[in-house]
Design a protein that fits this description.
This protein is an alpha/beta fold and 158 residues long. It has four helices and seven strands; from the N terminus they run ααββαβαββββ. The chain has a four-stranded mixed sheet. Strands 1-2-3 form a three-stranded mixed sheet. The structure holds zinc ion.
Length: 158
């Protein structure tokens, strides 16, 4: 087995780690996972870029990466956090956006284009209002739909 194959296999394991704040998405979906390298001596280095600096999920994600790799037999794991370039919601996959919406969270619009109406994940209405710019977490705004009256979270574009 080449080192290339091994690191992509490890990358698949790590990419499947679920984001603790958005359990329907993995860190692969979010673009949080930036890369995996395996040294000749078997030590694994995982590079991640956290979503929002205010999100407390980072420590949990690091622990989950280490434990999933330990379970697969990789004992020496280092998780490196890279803050530059900063994470953007544009790194989120299209598939992830659809699953987010199905889960009841309005997905982010394109980064830097906040003017778009936020579409209600329940009834697809575009008449929605911000209740609080910070919802259940700093990553999300609490919104309410003017048509079906359902409150929902909007994953904010950054
Ligand atoms: Zn609605």
């Amino acid at each position: 087995m080449t080192t290339q194959t091994l690191s992509s296999r490890i990358e698949d394991l790590v990419a499947a780690v679920v984001d603790p704040e958005v359990p329907v998405l993995t860190i692969g979906d979010l673009g949080v996972l930036r890369g995996v390298t395996v040294a000749a001596d078997g030590a694994v280095a995982v590079t991640i870029t956290p979503t929002y600096s205010g999100c407390p999920a980072l420590g949990v994600i690091e622990e989950d990466i280490v434990s999933v790799l330990k379970a697969a037999g990789y004992e020496r794991v280092a998780v490196n956090t890279v803050l530059s370039p900063p994470w953007t919601t544009d790194w989120m996959t299209d598939d992830a956006r659809h699953r987010l919406n199905d889960y009841g969270i309005a997905p982010p619009g394109p980064a830097g284009a906040d003017a778009e109406p936020v579409v209600c994940p329940q009834c697809s209405a575009t008449k929605t209002t911000v209740v609080s710019p910070f919802g259940s977490t700093a990553c999300k705004a609490l919104m309410v739909c003017e048509v079906c009256r359902e409150p929902f979270d909007h994953f904010k574009a950054i």
